[in-house]
Prior knowledge:
320 residues; hydrolase; AB_hydrolase_fold; 11 helices; single chain; eight-stranded mixed sheet; AB_hydrolase_3; Rossmann fold; Carboxylest/Gibb_receptor; 20% strand
Amino acid sequence: MLVDFLAYFNRINLVYKTLDGIPFEAAVLIPKSLTPDPAKSYPVLVHFHGGALIVGTNPDPSFFARWIIELTTTTPAILISPAYRLLPESTGADILDDVSSFFTWLHTSFPSSLRSAFASSPSDSPAPDLSRIAAVGESAGGYLSIQAGLLFNSHAKIRAVGAAYPAQYPDAVAYNARKLGNAEAEKVVDGYLERVKRGEMPMRVSSPWPEGKELVEAMCVTGRHREMMGEDERLSIGGATRIAREGGWDVPPVWVIQGEDDDLVPKAGADFVVGEIREVLPGVPVKYTVEPGPHLLDLECRLDVPWVKEGVEFMQKHWL
C-alpha cells in the first residue's frame, strides 16, 4: 500500500538537527480531522520508519500501516516521523545518537518551531502535549521505538511503545545469522562496503523504497546486518535492557506485533526480545501479539481488527 499522506494530513517539515551541512528533518503530520482548540493540547505519536536501517524515509508510504493512520486521525494526535542516518554509510551507534538528539529537540524546541511554522495563521497551530508521547514503528522502526524507550527515556519521556516485528538485534540469534553460499549477494555487499570505505558513498538520511532494494536483499540473503550495525553494546537487547535497569528510569510499556510466518525477521527473534525485556525488566508491562502472516502483516490492518484494537487499547491506557 502506498499511502497518500496528504489525503489524511497536512505535512510540515522541521529540522531537528544539522550535521555536516545536512539537515535532519522531522515530518510533522497534523490530521485534517484535528481542528485546533486554543484551550487544548494534543498527544504526540512519534513514528520511526522501517527499512532494515538501510533504506526508508520519514515516513515511508511503502511500509506505513493503515492502523497508525487511523489511530492518529481519530485520537487525534500530532504525528512526527524523524529522519535518521542509514547503514552502512553510518553505524548503528550513529542512528541511536540521532534518536536521542530527536527527543532532546522534541522537548526543547519543537513547540516553538511548530508555532513558527504557523506564524501567518497562529490559530491553526495545535499545541503538543509533551506529557503524552507514544512511539511506534515497523521493522527497523519498531527496533528504534523499543531502543528509545530502553536507552533514552530519561529525556524522551515516552509513555507507550508499539513495535511491529522489531527483532533486528545483533544478539537475537534467530535474526540475520550469517549465511554462506550465495556468491552474487556477497559480491553486492562487499562491493558496497568497499565503496563506503573509499569514501565514495556520502551519508544518507533518506532512501525511499525501493531505492537500495538490491543491498537490502543481499544483506538478508547473506546475513550481514550485524556487520553493518557495528559493535556498540547499546545496539543489543541484552545491552539496552541492562542499561535501562542500571539507569533506573521508567521504561514505557511495550506492545510487540509479530507474524508467525515472517521470514525476514523471524518469530524466534521476537520471542527472544520479549523474553529479555520480561526477564531483565519484570516491572515493564509487555503485550506480545503473534498472528498468522509474513513481514508487514499489519500493513492493511484497520483499527477495528480485533487484535489491533486490543493492542491499541493497551497503548492508549498508558499513553492518553
